[in-house]
Design a protein that fits this description.
Blueprint: H1 13-20, H2 23-36, E1 57-58, H3 69-84, H4 86-91, H5 101-111, E2 118-121, H6 124-134, E3 142-146, H7 151-164, E4 167-171, H8 176-179, H9 184-191, E5 203-207, H10 219-229, E6 233-237, E7 259-263, E8 275-279, H11 313-318, H12 325-340, H13 344-365, E9 383-386, H14 401-413, E10 416-417, E11 419-424, E12 430-437, H15 444-459
Helix pairs in contact: 3-12, 5-12, 6-7
Bound molecules: pyridoxal-5'-phosphate (PLP).
């Protein structure tokens, strides 16, 4: 890949608007332009992602995002500030200091929750580990997950199973050819039927958006399921949702969950090693929940014996030695950036429109290849997963690793980055699919170029 640093972004604000072709998006960007001036003096919103080289089409935010200039600039300044006065920065600085009150408040505002519901973490994995290792499970408890969980969920559950006998029930997703056509109710009824096995589980541990198939599980519907089945905790892995969909309100508000862990470094386009853990019960304490990574464990001494303990759990989890405060501050700039783009719901709309175009392209040529749902609005996301297929014979689908890997590496030679991903399709062996992430910084022109190059690779397999 050539790394051409001349900054002539291959997309423009106009493209952003054209691709969205939505008056609502247009108005929001127009309204936001005053605030956007601090991001770009040229008032060209999309040009703020300048570090991706001109001729590089990056379609892999599901693995890592990039960063807009304002985030990079502030991140760099935070580091300089820290270096110039380290002890003050760590102990007392209101933005960089160990308590993180200001950054937690900013994140809480972005997510429409309270500061004491928020702990800033290094990543999703850390938030889920704090949650699953902190909850006081017993050997008679059962918890539910699916066969598509990332090991950020399945790993700790496996460990708890091995260490103390926690019963882990794994529910299989329907096979991809069914999934693609399902709506929300059909999917949730197959995944989480009202059965004796599931009723009364201690926790349901699922992902908000699946990195395998790109399906979204709407949080409100999950909450209804959890209530119906008498499950105590809804624990959600939001790695692929934050920054892609609006998790601050409505059917996908994180407040529907008991615990929600997500990153700042993927779709949100914040710095590496940034993440968020949301805890609904700000007063949770031992023996229900223990802070397993904290310099404030001592604050809960005696709680189990009935001593009144009021120290906020998210603050205990926040104060854990020197952490990525410079990154956390810059992550809040990524949130401001989204607000200036019209807000999280407008960004979601834009991303879904681009992803919709990708899905239509596949449906027209090879409907059998598409794995991600395309029929039901509430299941849609910015991830499009599909199997490689023969362009000349579109019924011929490939599910092996070699073909998927070949498509990815051939596209990378053309400066287009997507990825392949393995998963269990229903009860079957592992299959390999292609995964395209259409993000805020992508546009129609890039999508067309990608489709053109994809066609060429598929003509040759
Ligand atoms: C569903 C899911 N969970 C967790 C992770 C790990 O994310 P993080 O690096 O933020 O821990 C990923 C990464 O791709 C993911 O897709």
């Amino acid at each position: 890949m050539s790394n051409n640093k001349t900054h002539h972004p291959s997309f423009s604000r106009r493209n952003f608007l054209t691709a969205a072709s939505s008056a609502v998006v247009f108005n929001s960007i127009a309204v936001a332009s005053g605030a956007a001036r601090s991001i770009s003096s040229s008032n060209d919103f999309a040009q703020n992602f300048q570090e991706l080289p001109d001729n590089f089409i990056y379609l892999n935010s599901g693995t890592e995002g990039t960063m807009p200039q304002i985030v990079l600039e502030n991140y760099k300044n935070n580091l300089y500030q820290w270096a110039s006065n380290p002890t003050f920065s760590y102990e007392l600085d209101p933005i960089l200091g160990k308590h993180q009150h200001i950054n937690r408040t900013r994140v809480a505002k972005f997510l429409n929750v309270k500061k004491n519901n928020i702990c800033l973490t290094d990543n999703t994995t850390m938030g889920l580990s704090m949650t699953l290792m902190g909850l006081n499970f017993s050997s008679s408890d059962k918890v539910i997950m699916t066969n598509h969980e990332h090991n950020a969920i399945s790993g700790p559950l496996q460990l708890l199973h091995d260490r103390m006998g926690l019963k882990v029930i794994t529910r299989n997703f329907p096979p991809s050819k069914q999934l693609a056509l399902m709506n929300e109710t059909e999917l949730l009824d197959v995944l989480l039927p009202d059965s004796k096995e599931l009723r009364g589980a201690k926790a349901l541990c699922v992902s908000h958006v699946y990195p395998t198939t790109g399906v979204r599980l709407p949080l409100k519907a999950l909450r209804t399921k959890v209530q119906k089945l008498g499950i105590k905790y809804l624990i959600v892995d939001g790695a692929q949702a934050m920054g892609m969909i609006d998790i601050s309100r409505g059917a996908d508000h994180i407040a529907h969950c008991d615990f929600y862990a997500c990153p700042g470094h993927k779709w949100l386009n914040g710095p590496p090693s940034t993440g968020i853990l949301y805890i609904k019960n700000a007063h949770i304490k031992p023996p229900e929940f223990y802070p397993t990574l904290s310099q404030r464990m001592g604050k809960y001494s005696g709680c189990e014996q009935g001593t009144d303990c009021h120290f906020p759990m998210t603050e205990a989890l926040q104060v854990r030695g020197c952490s990525n405060a410079t990154g956390f501050a810059a992550m809040t700039d990524a949130m401001t950036f989204i607000n200036n783009a019209g807000g999280a719901s407008q960004v979601e709309k834009y991303i879904l429109i681009l992803a919709g175009k990708m899905k239509s392209f596949l449906l027209q040529k090879s409907p059998l290849s598409l794995i991600s749902p395309s029929k039901s609005n509430s299941l849609l996301t910015g991830i499009t997963a599909f199997f490689p297929f023969s362009w000349h014979n579109p019924h011929k689908i490939f599910k092996d690793k070699k073909t998927a890997s070949h498509v990815v590496s051939t596209l990378l030679k053309k400066n287009i980055q997507i990825r392949y991903i393995g998963f269990h399709d229903g009860k079957n062996d592992e299959v390999y699919a292609l995964r395209v992430s259409t993000a805020l910084f992508n546009d129609d022109q890039q999508l067309k170029k990608f489709q053109h190059e994809l066609k060429k690779v598929l003509q040759s397999i």
